[in-house]
């Protein structure tokens, strides 16, 4: 299974790995790469089944986590490793932490669903009936707007959405809705920052609280006036939040801390 990724910055610098959300790919982190690559080694993979990592193998969060953990071990040349995940990428990050509880120094978990939805498989089949909407340009624009995707990226977003096959889409949705915290999450030694937008659905805010309450190393942040996708909605604010946390272990004052 081939994992596509891009690298930026100096390889001897501290490593930051950026994991995108479902239906997106590495381009969603362009603003972060521009900001951080002068001082960090940035690694931006396309999660298996997405972007340029599309293949015929069934997608699993656990499998993606294992691949990216292996990639980090291959690429790290500095003691410090930080991983940032959004949505599906945040679920992959949580799974990575469960698999290797002591290998990541800083983990920023953005908008991770960790409360499994009852009857997920049945619900996935229902959602699968809406699969043709993914090829609708008007529906795609509505989805893009809800995730704060800029017009310059819409064609890329739409083209990548159209390349996802129905079977892969339903498998991805089932993995997403069935995901829960690893049983050993309380043993993870990373410095953990967990964020959610104040305008996100209640289940997402509850998931953030579950993560924070499951590990003593967690700090939770509710980002005001933003829904699903802070890094795209307000890149500068997101970048400053990440930078201050990694470099100074501080959450900037514009945020609402949960704990």
TrEMBL record:
<feature type="domain" description="AB hydrolase-1">
    <location>
        <begin position="14"/>
        <end position="112"/>
    </location>
</feature>
<dbReference type="InterPro" id="IPR050266">
    <property type="entry name" value="AB_hydrolase_sf"/>
</dbReference>
<dbReference type="GO" id="GO:0047372">
    <property type="term" value="F:monoacylglycerol lipase activity"/>
</dbReference>
<dbReference type="GO" id="GO:0016020">
    <property type="term" value="C:membrane"/>
</dbReference>
<dbReference type="InterPro" id="IPR000073">
    <property type="entry name" value="AB_hydrolase_1"/>
</dbReference>
<dbReference type="InterPro" id="IPR029058">
    <property type="entry name" value="AB_hydrolase_fold"/>
</dbReference>
<dbReference type="GO" id="GO:0046464">
    <property type="term" value="P:acylglycerol catabolic process"/>
</dbReference>
<protein>
    <submittedName>
        <fullName>Alpha/beta hydrolase</fullName>
    </submittedName>
</protein>
<keyword id="KW-0378">Hydrolase</keyword>
<dbReference type="Pfam" id="PF00561">
    <property type="entry name" value="Abhydrolase_1"/>
</dbReference>
